[in-house]
Fold each of these.
Amino acid sequence: MISDPAIVVSDLSVEYPARGASPSCVALRGVSFRLEAGRSIGVLGETGSGKSTLASVLAGRGIPLRSGEPGPRISGGEATVLGHSLRHARKRDLAEVTFHVGYLPQEAAATLEPTLSVQDNISLPIVERDHHYSRRAAGERAALMLDTVHLPLSVLAKYPYELSAGQRQRVALAKALVLGPQILVVDEPTAGIDATVRDAVIDLLAQLRGHEGFSAVIVSHDLAVLRRATDVSLVLQGGRPVGYGPIEDVLADPAHPFVRGLADALKPPQRRTERRPQRAG
């Protein structure tokens, strides 16, 4: 039995409409790819290349339902997530997408509610969808998610300010996973955390990749993340796709000048060999 693709993006263009004195801004143009269920795609590119816009659109976050509302608008092409069209999405469609797609935004650790405990932060998406949901059951779910991201249960009663940056990042990831999503969209998951925790986050993303039917979109400039946690990668420059395929293949045979520069920048520095002076003989 062949399952439907998790995401299909066809010639997608996204713009931010003009607001006040600010003109409209095209963030993405002509992006296409197909992500099968159980696969993961990495997205990389320079600042302002449209990576975060693509992530938020595919996660169904911030898409305006009516003309005049702020947020990224699909101006061309199409993006379909779990069978739901995002270009012509209705409120019901977006509710389905946001339920089945977990989202870890950039600097996610800073989005945790400072007045809520870790347990309440993680279970917040459950409570927001069902105000009558059992608090005990929500707490048990939060504990399970905390274990999933490899944090001790003693953290449940703490508040975000009592945690390290790496711990807060993993709590935010637990929150993104609490509804049991089919797709996880993460934006720079290893930014701003120390090397030890970075490796733990990469390990976790690699483990999630192994779960049957679980798909992910991972925006990252971290080559280790792309190598270990993705199947293919999409390179963006100025909102346009300039490279696509397994990350090693893309960097080994760059067809675009930007990708060539990226490949050169990511090459390990060559060790210099010093020539010993010859003795006079």
Amino acid sequence: MNFPFYIARRYLFSKKSTHAINVISGISMVGVAVATMALVVTLSVFNGFHDLVASLFTAFDPQLKVAPAVGKTAPADDPALTRIRQLPEVEVATETVEDMALVTYGERQAMVTVKGVADNFDSLTHIREILVGEGEYGLHAGGLDYGILGIRVAEALGTGYRFQGPLAVYAPRREGQLNMANPTDGFVAGELYSPGVLFSVQQAKYDKNYVLAPIAFARRLFGQQGMVSALELRLRPGSDFDAVKEEIKEIAGGRFTVKDRFEQQEDTFRIMKIEKLIAYIFLTFILAVACFNIIGSLSMLIIDKKADVATLRNLGATDRQITRIFLFEGRMISAIGATAGIAAGLLLCWLQQQYGLVGLGRSSGSFIVDAYPVSVHPEDVALIFATVLAVGFTAVWYPVRYFARRLL
């Protein structure tokens, strides 16, 4: 058995001559445990929000989006896009055309992004799961073009779920000069009718800005016949996503960008990662402060055990072994505090997941979820445990060596 470890374990759990040393050691463990628990809970809440936002985007964003690297559009029959469509791993491929337009309804108007999509758009995404209203999903019927508005767009225009009469849509002409005598001639106009539903992604980026329309309508409106803004893909179940993505990148070359769902919302997820990193850094500083309590308990223990140290020396223990006894003492306090804190943090996360102990608001339905979302990631737990041990071991190394030389 490791001699310094054996003695350190006896010192840790034995009753001291001064009761205050036991109390301070206990406080040190509790401090480390509380800081560790805070790290587990905080990072898990950030993970929960990350997963929640990702699930919301999933209903609207495709698995993979292939878009021109330069310019807004590319020919729909581009050889690279044709090869990508024909890959055996691609289950659904749909063309989209989108650009800014002015929509008016009655006396109200708004600038929106009109996204023209093919008929199989509902097979590509989970759009049907985020529809609200009294109608059904559909983009054209009876020779009429239907438009599905974001719920905040409908609110701004005052249309309701089913608007009466057509929604007027205007976009600048791509060719020709503006005739100041007849400014309206410089715009292409179109009309969209209501299918009786709106979509609600519960993200302002979409709900306040997007209108879904048939791709043929968008091409006429923006003068983009035979062009696409993006080719959106869904892969077959069981496909190696990363391998297929790399293959598509090779086919696309430098002329097209290939983005997954997270890369399509890169700014949002980058901000969330930065917030999580900052929270981790601040809580690590708090953990470091908590570890200073260990220094106090060790210094008092060294003073309390001066007589025992003399006995150990007489029995043949070296100064290095004696120093290691107190180093092990501090490290065990850190390890026990880390283990207890992680266990307590995981318990709190489980309780939050099961019972929603901490709510987001007083009234139900005010937010997307009623309670703080929590998602425990094993790699975060491993990082926290390693961080606590590293901070704890570093905090006790120099003080123990210093006090050992001065007092022993």
